[in-house]
Amino acid sequence: MWGPGIGPAWGRGVAPTRAAGRRRLNLLYDTPMSAVLSSTEREARQRQVAGALAPVLPARCLLVRAEDTLAYECDALTAYRQRPLLVALPETEAQVAAVLEVCHQLGVPVVARGAGTGLSGGALPHSDGVTLSLAKFNRIVSIDPAARTATVQSGVRNLAISEAAAPFGLYYAPDPSSQIACTIGGNVAENSGGVHCLKYGLTLHNVLRVRGFTAAGEAVEFGSTALDAAGLDLLPLVVGSEGMLAVTTEVTVKLLPRPQVARCVMASFGTVEAAGAAVAAVIAAGIIPAGLELMDRRMTAAAEDFVHAGYDLDAAAILLCESDGTAEEVAEEIEHAIAVLEANGATQIEISRDEQQRLTFWSGRKNAFPASGRMSPDYMCMDSTIPRKRLAEMLRAIEGMEGKYALRCVNVFHAGDGNLHPLILFDANDADELHRCELFGAEILEASIGLGGTVTGEHGVGVEKLNSMCVQFSAAERAQMLAIKHAFDPRGLLNPGKVIPSLQRCAEYGKMHVSRGVLKFPDLARF
């Protein structure tokens, strides 16, 4: 509903100074996210909350000192930082319930956190709240090869599920670039995708059941391991809700048989227009590749320098198009895909000759973000979605924005489903550059709306995209979102001040961008 996604936490370059991040934070985000207590009041509140949690958590599971909570002051959107009141690291579901009950009784905000790899500030702490880390929920409960399911705790790493299922010839399909680090609980919160989501779907399409707790500490379960669940189907509502409706502690996911064969085609194009047209043509031809990714020239060069994958550095853009299945299926699909790519202007085609080369082709794409971290002290990874036939238009628009804001941008796209990841390069220690980067990012998001898209694809809204939500959705639509939030969390304690912008915020933003809060692009279908 509110949009999926997470991304890698590495490759961020030099971290911005905390002073710069906090200054910008208070200007950008809604009041609930900024400090409202004086230092004396905050210390008193901290003692009160720590004292109330001490009876329900072992001392090792409660972090209060500033030096202990420092590591939790941001997620992978490192430009914005804020220390929590304290950090709770429960080890059991009973402890999770107890922490939530105490916080609910005291009216203390709670921000659930997985691995902290999110790129939209979804796990940014509340300065007067508790960060609830699920890091210790790292147990694989069961693998059922007959039913092709895995039940795991929410702190289990994405890749660890496939590693545990490998002896049975099975794997978990969603594969965000941060899969070696990101947790399944975070994937559920953001509805994460990955390079193979075009064929195999997002987290939502691969999760059967989610267990967790409400803001009041009440146990809840969504979905089922059966073919259907009793009552309303609320699983699609919870997946992608960014920790605003419930705290996830256990997840049952689908497992798939590992394909017999997988091969990757690397195609070069002389223009981004030709590459964009080829993406649309592949899908129009009835081909659904396992993955279909686009990188522009600068991104290709950065990735090649980082992993030496053998990319064509003369190409304006390259496409990676993967087929998987039986040997016969793959051979037929590869032949069909190559014909379509050549018909749409591919200047060079290379097919992976073996599994090692296939993985090498993908290594550059998977390491695109850390490769970008070598080009600049910092980068901000944007995330929006547009109709795939308009990819080239978007790339040309971004080129114009580079000149306008005097900042570089490298581009890598989940081209098959139109999900864009422009990476704006900047120095967060330079307040002016940070401000220009924010404006650049907002213009990318709003240009995506203008092209018939949406402001998020898989990284979520968090705090990063609050302003753009004012443009994407009408006041009535935002009110409906708040009503759903209120139904689950009447006191508004779970991850407050994120995802759904306030009326005041949209009114202020509207004075600058959307004519006093009136929705821009009113004729576009809402998402």
What does this structure look like?
With 527 residues, the chain is an alpha+beta fold. 36% of the residues lie in helices and 18% in strands. It is built from 18 helices and 19 strands. Strands 12, 13, 14, 15, 16, 17, 18 and 19 form an 8-stranded antiparallel sheet that branches. Helix 10 (297-307) crosses helix 12 (355-366) and helix 15 runs parallel beside helix 16. The chain starts with 17 loop residues before the first helix and ends in a 14-residue tail after the last helix.
Give the tags:
527 residues, alpha+beta, five-stranded antiparallel beta sheet, 18 helices, 36% helix, globular
Please outline the major beta sheet: 8 strands, antiparallel
The percent of residues in helical segments reads: 25-40%
Strand content: 15-25%
Rounded to an integer, what's the Rg over CA atoms? 23 Å
Mean pLDDT: 90
Which blocks of ≥5 consecutive residues have pLDDT under 50? 1-34, 514-519
Total number of strands: 19
Tally of individual helices: 18
Distance between the termini: 8 Å
Shape: globular
The structural class is: alpha+beta
Summarize, please.
By secondary structure, the chain is an alpha+beta fold. It is built from 18 helices and 19 strands.
Write the layout of secondary structure elements.
Layout: H1 18-28, H2 39-53, E1 62-63, H3 66-69, E2 86-88, H4 93-106, E3 110-113, E4 130-133, E5 140-144, E6 149-153, H5 158-165, E7 170-171, H6 184-190, H7 197-200, E8 207-213, E9 219-223, H8 235-238, E10 247-254, E11 256-257, E12 261-269, H9 272-284, E13 291-296, H10 297-307, E14 317-325, H11 327-343, E15 346-351, H12 355-366, H13 368-372, E16 378-381, E17 384-385, H14 391-405, E18 409-414, E19 419-426, H15 431-450, H16 466-472, H17 475-488, H18 503-513
Parallel strand pairs: 2-4, 3-4
Antiparallel strand pairs: 1-2, 5-6, 6-10, 7-11, 8-9, 8-10, 12-14, 12-15, 13-14, 13-18, 16-19, 17-19, 18-19
Helix pairs in contact: 9-11, 9-14, 10-12, 14-15, 15-16, 16-18
